[in-house]
Amino acid sequence: MTTTMYGSPASLFSGKARAYLDWKGADYTEIAPNLQIRNEVIVPAIGRMIIPVVELSDGTMLQDTSLIIDHFESTLGSPSIYPDTPRQHFAARLLECFGDEWLVLPAMHYRWNYNEDWILEEFGRNMMPDAPRDQQIAAGTMIGKQFRGFVPILGINEETIPGIEASYEALLADLDAHFAKHDFLLGSRPSIGDFGLIGPLYAHLYRDPASGEIMKRLAPRVAEWVERMVAPSEPLSGEFLPNDEIPPTLIPVLERMMREHVPFLAQTAALFSDWLKQNPTGDIPRGVRMASFEIEGVKGEGIARTFSLWMLQRALDYMSSLEGADRDVCLDLLQECGGTALIDFSMPARLAYENHTLVVADG
Ligand SMILES: N[C@@H](CCC(=O)N[C@@H](CS)C(=O)NCC(=O)O)C(=O)O
């Protein structure tokens, strides 16, 4: 048996895993989960329906793209998508967190407010490729309801949409300027940061037709980067920039993360800390209350997602593992991009992701 990825072309995180596996030259087959796979493979193994899931040849089931990526990084070896110099490595991990956990806002907004009819039909097509169109639409509508339901919970509504769009368009402009000079975020090789960004920027913001039109019109070089990412012409090729350089064109992207995402993460941490005091031994919920955010001058509230803290912890752990000059260059980078809040970021507890569930780590 070979390695199988259960994933779907319309899924954000499947896009992240697929782009990585293809760049890494991994030998795998992708299967879009139908009802049977959902009920007999994914839900029993993971405890809930979620994609992507990778099933290894020995039957091991991996979920969460970060863990999938780390598995293949260790088994397939170099070249790595983790730069081996401190500043680039840290920046790449921060951008993975930003892509995975914050750019889900524009991704979900553009999908559901610009592409709804198309995506419902697409969900149905993937689920029942041989069924008649009306049955596909009915099935797609059923699945779509759950995802559509996330839109208001994430804080996407009439008041916040102008801020989300202004932010996304500015991000596109920043990335367009960056990709005029570099093929990927940190040189001619994609890093974990590129794979974090490709999740939202591929399935929802490039592949959904109305979103794709916007991206190609406003930021053609970003669309070309998406194309490079999802169809690597030379897997395993390229280099990170020398001298641990963070290109100046990437600073505005990091600044955006620090301005928009990090305060939201800080609130998430505070709300989770309150929750933990009241539920010291309870199962950690996916969301704890609503946290406020501000995006291009517009205020909103979105569900405080505990998983985001685990993603941030991964980046901060890397910085904590460094000493001396290596650590100093990361601190300088945070200074430079307005990210000093991350220097003493107060994590309510040490988190671990075990058996596909977020838990407070022992000890
Ligand atoms: N952080 C996870 C997230 C996976 C995820 O959220 N997948 C979406 C599809 S793109 C899903 O299946 N969501 C169902 C749900 O969250 O209930 C990863 O990196 O794999």
Question: Would you give an account of this structure?
Answer:
With 363 residues, this protein is α+β, with helices and mostly antiparallel strands. It folds into 3 domains: 3-76, Glutaredoxin; 86-243, Glutathione S-transferase Yfyf (Class Pi), Chain A, domain 2 (Up-down Bundle); 250-360, no CATH class. The protein contains 14 helices and 8 strands. It has helices at residues 12-24, 35-46, 65-76, 86-101, 104-114, 116-127, 133-154, 161-179, 192-207, 209-218, 220-230, 251-278, 306-320, 324-336; strands at residues 3-6, 28-31, 53-55, 61-63, 287-295, 298-305, 351-354, 357-360. A 4-stranded mixed beta sheet has the order 2-1-3-4, with helices on both faces. A hairpin with a 2-residue loop joins strand 5 (287-295) and strand 6. Helix 1 packs across helix 9 (192-207) and helix 6 packs across helix 7 (133-154). The longest helix is centred in the last third of the chain and has 28 residues, at 251-278. The radius of gyration is 20 Å and the shape is globular. The site of glutathione has 9 residues, from helix 1 and helix 3. This is Glutathione S-transferase. One of its GO terms (cellular component) is cytoplasm.
